[in-house]
Amino acid sequence: MMEWIRFWITAVLLVCGLVSFAAGVIGNCRFNYVMNRMHAGGVCDTQGLLFIVLSVAVSAGSVMDAAKLFLLVVFMWNTSPVSSHFLSQIEYYTNPKLFDHMERL
Amino acid sequence: MTVGEAYTCLYTGALVILAVLIGVMLIRSIRGPGVTDRILSINMIGTMVISCIAVLYAYLGESYLLDVALIYTMISFVTVLVLASVYIPANPRRKRFANEDDTASKVVPGRLKRKRRERRKRL
Questions:
Q1: Which of the residues A49, A62, A65, A90 would you substitute to probe the B interface, choosing the one with the greatest number of B C-beta atoms within 10 Å?
Q2: Domain for residue B61, yes or no?
Q3: Which pLDDT band holds residue B40 (cuts at 50, 70, 90)?
Q4: In sequence order, what DSSP letters do the residues of B24-44 get, joined into one string?
Q5: Contact A37 B37 (CB under 8 A)
Q6: Domain that holds residue B22
Q7: Is B80 part of any domain?
Q8: How many CB atoms lie within 10 A of CB A12?
Q9: Number of folded domains that form chain B
């Protein structure tokens, strides 16, 4: 009985993670500009990975492995905003028509 | 149906769905019109591969796969940094392009200080 409860928690969290990944991919295909696509990519990097890692950590073998999975989430949450920042800098320096896509204040 | 079979079905389905999503992102990274779209797609593929490795850890029960996932995270971060250092110029104050009429990104020296001084006077 206990095993089945653990299985259902794992399944629900895994499906949540997959739905987040699917939302990120669909957003990346539907949006028409890279700054909007970066938003969908951020959903993938934070929410999707968090749910998948939680579901794997629920069914993990030992506490040490769960700690490693937690470290994975910590590292990803720290590096994802930095890479988004650098991506927007690349866009700023490579797109000549940057200000056609946004409002000037 | 035992618990082990249920886990096998669940993880196999998750891996298949993740593989399909990675394929879609690969098409996106080939089609993407600019440089940034491609780098963003590659970054997202890296995230999905990391979660694939995490699911494989639970499927196979081998704990060394988690070390592989950690190293993969660091490498996919370093990829973006290196590609950024290729495209971001060393002198960021220069004009971005030769024939650019760009008033929004113009830096007016001392503008912020002047504003602050005016606000202080008003107070």
A1: A90
A2: yes
A3: very high
A4: HHHHHHHH-SSHHHHHHHHHH
A5: yes
A6: 3-89
A7: yes
A8: 13
A9: 1
Residue A2: pLDDT above 60?
Answer: yes
Nearest CA in chain B to A46: B47
Chain A residues lying within 8 Å of B61, measured CB to CB: 61
Cα separation, A69 vs A52, in Å, equals 10
**Residues B46-87: pLDDT tens digits?**
999 999 999 999 999 888 999 999 999 999 999 999 988 888
- Parse chain A into domains and list their residue ranges: 2-100
List CB contacts of B10: < 8 A, sequence separation 6 or more.
A7, A10, A11, A14
Q: Are A79 and B73 in contact (CB under 8 A)?
A: yes
A27 touches B at CB < 8 Å: no
Q: Which ipTM did the prediction report?
A: 0.90
Domain-embedded: residue B7: yes
The pLDDT of residue B78 is: 94
Q: How far is B117 from chain A (nearest CA, A)?
A: 23
d(CA B114, CA B117): 5
Predicted TM-score of the model (pTM) = 0.82
Q: Give me the helix-helix angle, A2-30 and B35-60, nearest 10°.
A: 170
Contact residues, chain B, for A18 at CB < 8 Å: 14, 17-18
Identify whether B41 is part of a domain. yes
Is B88 in contact with A90 (Cβ distance < 8 A)? yes
- Residue A36's Cβ-side half-sphere holds a number of Cα atoms within 13 Å equal to 10
